[in-house]
Specification:
Blueprint (H helix, E strand, L loop, with lengths): L22 E8 L8 E4 L2 E4 L1 H11 L1 H4 L3 E8 L3 E8 L24 H19 L13 E5 L2 H12 L1 H7 L2 H7 L4
């Protein structure tokens, strides 16, 4: 089989950070092309589409598949999801005291990138099962993650999540997605 040469993608993860270590992580995952497939915001309330119901259910099922994860606040928006994942302890078999840099096609069991990849895959599969366009991508290839380092930062991110629907109504979705990087 011939190897396909693809350009190397620069990782957006912190170099040498162990994304399987306990901590709190703020995650944002956007739909492919920022398409609003998960529903609409009407009178400052998110009305889920069938795709949105699937995405919400898959998010809420993460702890069933990863015993080291607890969910904190999250919000499903028309074209993205924001959520706080709490990694409580390494899974059995996870290596300690060495760098666990996630590399493309080399998932680390119980790490944040592996958990997000699993969520995206499950959501895509279920959406394709109900869709008339089963080959269209649901998610962007990458996701945004922020390591939460203090209680103040955690409170700020929770406030951001709680106010996301109101901000959506006041501005465009693009501005909202740009805004969270300033937390």
């Amino acid at each position: 089989m011939e190897k396909i040469n693809r350009p190397n993608r620069r990782s957006i993860r912190l170099k040498d950070y162990d994304y399987s270590q306990p901590g709190e992580y703020f995650i944002t995952i956007c739909t492919n092309g920022h398409k609003c497939i998960f529903g609409n915001i009407i009178h400052e309330e998110m009305k889920l589409s069938s795709e949105g119901t699937i995405a919400q259910r898959c998010w809420e099922e993460i702890p069933k598949h990863f015993s080291n994860i607890q969910l904190d606040d999250y919000i499903l928006m028309p074209n993205h999801i924001h959520g706080i994942l709490i990694l409580t302890e390494p899974l059995v078999g996870t290596r300690h005291a060495v760098s666990l840099r996630e590399q493309f096609a080399k998932p680390v069991t119980g790490s944040i990138p592996t958990i997000v990849r699993s969520f995206k895959s499950a959501t895509t599969k279920r959406i394709h099962e109900i869709s008339n366009t089963p080959s269209l991508p649901v998610w962007q290839g990458r996701f945004y993650e922020r390591i939460i380092r203090s209680d103040k930062e955690l409170d700020n991110i929770r406030d951001y999540i709680h106010n996301n629907i109101i901000k959506w109504a006041l501005s465009s979705s693009r501005e909202i997605l740009d805004d969270f990087t300033n937390l």
